[in-house]
Amino acid sequence: MRRVVTGIKGLDDLLQGGVPENNSILVCGGPGTGKSIFGLQFIYTGAKNKEPGLYVSIEEKPDKLREQALFFFKDFKKLEDKKLINFLKIPTNIAGLDIVEFIKDAVKKTKAKRMVIDSLSILSINSSMYKIGLKTTLPFSSAAIMTNNSFEETKQMVYLFINKLSEFPTTNLFIADSSEQGMYLTRDSVSEFVCDGVIRLKQLMIGRTVQRVLEIIKMRNTDVKPGAHTLMFTNSGLQIIDFRY
Ligand SMILES: Nc1ncnc2c1ncn2[C@@H]1O[C@H](COP(=O)(O)OP(=O)(O)OP(=O)(O)O)[C@@H](O)[C@H]1O
Ligand SMILES: [Mg+2]
């Protein structure tokens, strides 16, 4: 099986070379745990290997993500100019599964081999709008307040979304918020089951200091050892510093 390197030092060794090609991987974690930086590093690493990548941003403006990326990856802009890195912002007037078609066009145009969806969480908020066919021009959050969202609809929506994107010729990384409490990793409660792999990022309080950790919860076709690994922000991106074989 071919593997796709994440570019996160230590993680690729833990994954026997990287994530399985064409798989869908969920990267979840609480706010500020490094999910977007993980995604940017994944796309950047592909671009360095001449694989075009598409970063689909649902909430954040590409400008902000670009700025974040430039802090760690100095030639990020150059690779973007060469169309090896592409950003796609989903306009607020496209809802639900219409987003799939919009992304599909961009994958074709960019010939992307890697894709990041940042993040799934907004789909959970937005799902009922698709069901009732309401194409809103309101910001997602305001629209969500106006609609009556059933949890089952949300699950269906996220399930379909991941499934449809899994048919694309890309290796996919889905980003989602996760809560520290509760039975499920994600707000939608299905993405962790639908995806082929799940990586969780966490911030742990140890005494008065915060330690960032990464756990591989599952990875199909890969022998992974359970447990948390120390994650560091270096000036060239994320890195695992205590990986063991
Ligand atoms: N240069 C840096 N050095 C160390 N830590 C940094 C640096 N840049 C960002 N961070 C840390 O990374 C966090 C943001 O990372 P990122 O945006 O990837 O998180 P996220 O999980 O996507 O957050 P959100 O849930 O808000 O989208 C910041 O809160 C900060 O703590
Ligand atoms: Mg983010």
Q: What this model shows, in words?
A:
The chain is α/β, with parallel strands linked by helices and 245 residues long. It has one domain (3-240): Rossmann fold, CATH 3.40.50.300. Helices cover 35% and strands 26% of the residues. It has nine helices and eleven strands. It has helices at 11-14, 35-48, 62-72, 76-81, 98-110, 121-131, 140-146, 151-166, 191-194, and strands spanning 3-4, 19-20, 24-29, 53-57, 85-89, 114-118, 171-177, 197-206, 209-219, 228-234, 237-240. The strands form two sheets. Strands 5-4-6-7-3-8-9-10-11 form a nine-stranded mixed β-sheet, with helices on both faces.
What is this structure, in a nutshell?
With 245 residues, the protein is an alpha/beta fold.
* Number of helices, where a helix is a run of at least 4 consecutive DSSP H or I residues: 9
- What is the CATH level 1 assignment? Alpha Beta
Distance between the termini: 20 Å
What integer is the average pLDDT?
88
pLDDT < 50 stretches: 130-147
Residues in β-strands, percent: 25-35%
Task: Return the CATH architecture.
Answer: 3-Layer(aba) Sandwich
Largest sheet descriptor? 9 strands, mixed
Structural class by secondary-structure content: alpha/beta
Ligand names = adenosine-5'-triphosphate, magnesium ion
CATH topology: Rossmann fold
Q: Estimate the global geometry from the Cα principal axes.
A: globular
Reading the helices and strands in chain order gives: EHEEHEHHEHEHHHEHEEEE
Q: Residue share in helices?
A: 25-40%
